[in-house]
């Protein structure tokens, strides 16, 4: 699908602008309201610039017929959109509760010292942007490190720094699950924009810890109850309010605390 380039204030060259326009039109066509395509479109411009640049914001605004301020408001809300150049690899260390208890905080601290950067900062060679990330739904493999959203399970400070060193040297690394390799941040951004890279069926899927419950259920022939033969659930019995009717303000005073108002006041103070 091709689209006519819109009048632009961006600084993209003609070839890049034409490619972006065609891809953006494909994104917009997915939605009844083209404005709904803003989120994947931000990933699209990030796949070109390596972050959501000024030109990227202007491009999205021009394509969707909205203001640059509206685009910027969305881009600054979500943490996957970067407002400054990102590294080739985003190394995210889960420091949510379980991963933190299992060593996630220690991994992040070790990586931060080893790489010389803090949260959302990039190494001088542009290879790695380090992040603290929230739960990645991989608690059965805690502590987890992700590289451009590919899983590296059961990490230690030592294994995480070795992983980072390989990334900086340009060596291939293999995720524990999912794709068979790690793509660049720009390539990952294009996938998040909704363009298939053909790697969805690579690598291993769910691992043994995730499937343990299913395995035990099969070994014991445990099955979900048949809805047609299960006992009916009793309807809840409606009951009225518990206690005497009326609020406490409507009931007569019954205790000394109800009548001795202001007894704890100092002499001369009005009781309230």
TrEMBL record:
Alphabetized GO MF terms: NADH dehydrogenase (quinone) (non-electrogenic) activity
Q: What is its EC number?
A: 1.6.5.9
> By its UniProt entry, which InterPro entries does this protein fall under?
NuoE_dom (IPR042128), NuoE_N (IPR041921), Thioredoxin-like_sf (IPR036249)
State whether keyword rRNA-binding applies: no
The enzyme's first-digit EC class, named in words, is: oxidoreductase
| Chain spans, region Disordered | 220-272
- Keywords in alphabetical order: Iron, Iron-sulfur, Metal-binding, Oxidoreductase
Basic and acidic residues: which segments have biased composition? 260-272
Q: Which NCBIfam families match?
A: PRK07539.1-1
Listed name of the protein: NADH-quinone oxidoreductase subunit NuoE
> What's the encoding gene here?
nuoE
């Amino acid at each position: 699908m091709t689209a006519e380039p819109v009048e632009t204030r961006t600084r993209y060259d003609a070839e890049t602008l034409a490619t972006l326009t065609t891809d953006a039109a494909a994104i917009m066509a997915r939605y009844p309201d083209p404005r709904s395509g803003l989120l994947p479109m931000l990933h699209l411009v990030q796949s070109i610039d390596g972050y959501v640049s000024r030109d990227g914001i202007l491009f999205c605004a021009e394509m969707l017929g909205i203001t640059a301020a509206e685009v910027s408001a969305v881009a600054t809300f979500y943490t996957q959109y970067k407002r400054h150049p990102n590294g080739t690899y985003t190394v995210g260390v889960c420091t949510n509760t379980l991963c933190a208890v299992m060593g996630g905080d220690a991994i992040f601290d070790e990586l931060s010292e080893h790489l010389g950067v803090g949260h959302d900062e990039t190494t001088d060679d542009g290879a790695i942007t380090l992040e603290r990330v929230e739960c990645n739904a991989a608690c059965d493999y805690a502590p987890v490190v992700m590289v451009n959203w590919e899983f590296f399970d059961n990490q230690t400070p030592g294994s995480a720094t070795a992983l980072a060193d390989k990334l900086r040297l340009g060596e291939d690394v293999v995720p524990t699950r999912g794709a068979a390799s790690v793509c660049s941040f720009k390539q990952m951004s294009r996938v998040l924009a909704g363009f298939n890279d053909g790697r969805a069926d690579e690598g291993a899927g769910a691992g043994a810890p995730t499937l343990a419950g299913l395995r035990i259920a099969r070994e014991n022939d445990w099955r979900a109850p048949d809805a047609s033969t299960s006992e009916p659930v009793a309807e809840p019995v409606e009951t009225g309010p518990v206690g005497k009717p009326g609020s406490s303000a409507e009931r007569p005073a019954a205790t000394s605390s109800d009548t001795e108002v202001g007894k704890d006041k100092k002499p001369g103070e009005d009781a309230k």
